[in-house]
Amino acid sequence: MATTESFHVNGNELLAKVKQVLHEGNARRIAIRQDSRTIAEFPLTVGVIGAAFAPILVAVGAIAAVLTDCTIVVERRDPGDELAPSEPPAEPAAPEEPPADA
Fold it and tell me: How many Cβ atoms from other residues are within 10 Å of residue 13's Cβ?
């Protein structure tokens, strides 16, 4: 289960707050909203580090340049959640047939 937090910021605080959330490292998704409209949404993957955040930060910087007032909605992983499934759940095995008499 994930928890959600909201932060109300103005345009020049937006980039700093998103950097802070990324640095904390337990965010699954970040959405930037103005009033009731979602302006941008960034899904985050586990294990993404440093330079991989650069495109997100560039986009947030561009958004901050035009927004004066917005809300950041952060969906966070709960401590007990699995970090990332490596593959989908396995299909149940087919029942084994009894050996044929030879």
Answer: 14
Backbone dihedral angles phi then psi of residue 29, each to the nearest 5 degrees: -155, 145
User: Average pLDDT for residues 29-46, to the nearest whole number?
Assistant: 86
Confidence of residue 68 (pLDDT cuts 50, 70, 90): confident
Is it the case that residue 98 has pLDDT exceeding 60? yes
Within 8 A by CB and 6+ apart from 101, the residues are none
Domain ranges of the chain: 2-77
Collect all residues with Cβ–Cβ distance below 8 Å to 21 and sequence separation of at least 6. 27, 30, 72, 74
> How high is the mean pLDDT of the chain?
77
Query: Is the distance from CB of 27 to CB of 58 less than 8 angstroms?
Result: no
Q: Report which of 68, 67, 62, 55 is spatially closest to residue 22, judged by C-alpha positions.
A: 55
